[in-house]
Design a protein that fits this description.
Layout (H helix, E strand, L loop, with lengths): L1 E11 L3 H12 L4 E5 L7 H4 L18 H6 L2 H9 L12 E3 L2 E5 L3 H9 L8 E4 L17 E5 L3 E2 L1 H9 L6 E3 L6 E6 L2 E9 L2 E12 L5 H8 L6 E12 L8 E3 L8 E7 L5 E6 L1 H4 L6 H15 L9 E12 L11 E5 L2 E5 L6 H14 L26 H4 L6
Parallel strand pairs: 1-2, 1-11, 2-8, 4-13, 11-18
Antiparallel strand pairs: 3-7, 4-6, 5-6, 9-10, 10-11, 12-15, 12-16, 13-14, 14-15, 17-18
Helix pairs in contact: 1-10
Bound molecules: flavin-adenine dinucleotide.
The site of flavin-adenine dinucleotide has 41 residues, from helix 1, strand 2, helix 2, helix 7 and strand 12.
């Protein structure tokens, strides 16, 4: 038996981009479905550092780039959502830190002080003058550098995913493109998506199909039969360290390059400990290193930067992970959420977790332009016998099962 499901929009890929968009569509009364082939949030999203960037780290060279301009409004937008005052309600999500900090280990800071005081950055960066205002880790007598506070909240990403999914579970479908689901096309146009369940066929039709599949976009585009836009991967070799020091740390360490020398965020491991998660230059430069080599470099860096932190009993692990984005010349960082329209579809990447609202806004502009208005979604949902994807698990505790001491 075949059952047709008529929708306004089908979103494919349930990371931060797909979920923010899907939530927005639902709030506005669109009949929308989300299709996910693994777990919700389990791609780049849960592996991110959870910082809602306002673009400040992109200004480390001393010039205000387009990236910095575009992303500048994001922290306030997210804070509104976190207070439950935005269309997307994140009031159930947990904030790990109200601010991300910047610290200069030595004299790099002085060169940047004038720049930080400039009009362009007013309201985004504040130098902390009194040691009492410093995050705990820098209140040590051994610390000599400068500390700046950024207007960038750091989030517990799993709780963000849960908040975005809440109440919408019956409109989210677990798919397996090799087993039970296929895209039926007419040239470059998606005619419908066919899904088999319990001997039945669901024919899912939509006025617009939007892909937000992160690194999976390339394969999805093959199923769709399109080759544009091209995608790039920018790989990282991240480091995790669980140690005796009880303080969390949320800070970029200033180096001499445009990327921070090290970006540290801290995440609860579910067993009462903080795991420090290290990214930045060390992760970008660490692709050729084995996990053991990367851990050696990370240990040396932490000893050099924060010598008073006791790493004696620390447990270490690393993670190779790609950022997926639209192709740029010379693997440069794209500077805003990206959408590409093809027939009745849109291919998209947010390029940053922080830019998920921006991606959603851009898609909504296309719907507006095409006068694709909501057809109402009261009582709308998938048949009861379909499978729904799980919400991803935090990977911190598992990361240490093969850990290096
Ligand atoms: C280590 C690291 C740290 C980062 N830190 C930050 C940060 O602190 N702040 C920030 O702003 N950005 C950060 N980023 C970037 C940010 O994580 C990503 O830009 C963002 O999470 C991308 O979201 P997404 O929804 O596009 O992709 P993803 O989170 O990868 O989600 C894609 C989803 O689509 C699903 N999918 C894939 N293929 C298919 C298919 N064929 N059918 C159905 N579903 C499919 C996947 O299973 C997944 O759930 C970081 C990235 C990395 C790698």
């Amino acid at each position: 038996m075949t059952q047709t499901i008529e929708t306004d929009v089908v979103v494919i890929g349930g990371g931060i981009a797909g979920l923010w968009l899907f939530n927005t569509l639902n709030q506005q009364g669109y009949k929308a479905l989300l299709l996910e082939n693994a777990t919700l949030g389990g791609g780049q999203t849960i592996k991110s550092q959870g910082i809602v960037h306002g673009g400040t780290k992109y200004t480390l060279t001393g010039t205000l780039t387009k990236a910095a301009e575009c992303i500048a409004g994001m922290p306030d937008r997210w804070r509104k959502a976190l207070k439950g005052e935005d269309e997307v309600d994140l009031s159930d999500a947990d904030i790990l830190s109200q601010s991300q900090y910047l610290w200069s280990p030595g004299d790099v800071g002085s060169r940047l002080t004038t720049f930080f005081a400039s009009k362009a950055l007013r309201g985004r960066v504040e130098q902390l003058k009194k040691a009492d205002d410093f995050p705990g880790i820098f209140r040590h007598e051994g610390f000599r550098g400068k500390v700046y506070q950024l207007n960038e909240v750091v989030l517990d990403i799993r709780t963000v995913i849960k908040a975005l999914v809440k109440g919408l579970e019956s409109r989210i479908l677990k798919v397996d493109w090799a087993e039970n689901t296929r895209i039926v096309t007419d040239g470059k146009k998606i005619d419908y998506i066919e899904h088999q369940v319990g001997g039945e066929t669901l024919q899912i039709r939509a006025k617009k199909f939007v892909t937000t599949a992160g690194e999976g976009t390339e394969d999805l585009m093959k199923l769709w039969g399109i080759s544009e836009p091209a995608m790039q991967r920018r790989p990282l070799h991240m480091i995790m360290v669980r140690h005796r020091h009880s303080e969390p740390l949320f800070a970029h360490c200033l180096g001499t390059k445009p990327v921070p020398r090290m970006t540290v965020t801290s995440h609860p491991d579910g067993e009462g400990n903080w795991v420090w998660y290290l990214g930045g230059e060390i992760a970008e430069d660490g692709m050729e290193r084995t996990p053991e080599e990367q851990i050696r470099v990370a240990r040396r860096e932490l000893v050099a930067l924060l010598p008073w932190v006791n790493l004696d009993d620390a447990q270490w692990a690393t993670l190779f992970v790609n950022r997926a984005e639209p192709k740029q010349t010379k693997l440069l960082r794209p500077d805003a959420a990206f959408i590409h329209e093809t027939e009745n579809g849109i291919v998209s990447w947010p390029t940053k977790l922080a830019l998920a609202p921006n991606l959603s806004d851009e898609v909504m502009k296309v719907l507006d332009k095409e006068q694709l208005s909501p057809s109402g979604n009261k009582g709308f949902g998938l048949p009861e016998n379909v499978q729904h994807p799980e919400i991803c698990q935090p990977f911190w505790s598992e990361a240490f099962t093969d850990c290096h001491d």
